[in-house]
Amino acid sequence: MKVLLTNDDGITATGLNVMRQALLEVPGLELAVIAPDSNRSATARGITIRKPLWVEEVEFGDGTTGFATDGTPVDCVRFAALGLIEFVPELIVSGINHGNNLGDDITYSGTVAAALEGIMLGIPAIAVSQQADHGEMDFRAGNSWSRAHFEQAAGFIARLVEGLEDVPIPAGTLLNVNSPAAEARGVKVGRLGKRVYNDRMELAEEDGEGRRRYTMYGVEPGYQHEDGTDFAAIAAGYIAVTPLHFDLTDQAGIDRLSGFELDRLLRPAAREV
After folding, report:
1. According to the model, what pLDDT value does residue 134 have?
2. C-alpha to C-alpha distance for 92 and 94, rounded to whole angstroms
């Protein structure tokens, strides 16, 4: 199997490199790495369209190399599809992210965005994220990470990739995987939960010329406590696996809107006399 590994924390991130080494041990796997040259967390599905992108080949110190770019995680997947590496990937693995990507977090996540780009291109994908060792249910989990934080998730994903032919992943679907801080009690498949963001706007600085700087993010978010969600699985100490796809169409909404005569909105409005 030909696999592209990418992330949004950058090519030197511990999570990516633990995942890289685990994948290299999978028999018959051919691995390429393309990742941002520095942290691109919370870039979501951003792409770089107004400037050329730098690419640099980097050595990992174990005889293997990868590519670092000043682009986004989605740019990294596009690079692979357009010929930067010697093969077209058969699987995208994005991560291991430093911090959870649960519930509504996925809409901001560069980690999940890279996996979404894979399925848009017809390539199966796995996004994988790691809860912080102090158990925060948060994707903004700080920068102090050791190899040990990621070894459980890396081992699970490597085994999953090795047995992927036996895993029933529908076409056009990615797996969003989150690993708990402690030793996992098992694996639970569930739906996305509902994140509760506790953000507030606070004045940080004024420059005396009418400009003000604000902070808007940083308060630890919460979540709705519901059974069967990815939040519930992580809170209970399980690896959470959530299948995701890209079809955002509200079919019920189409059915409802089809009952209205929307053509009439093109006609001049009737005027009262």
Report:
1. 72
2. 6
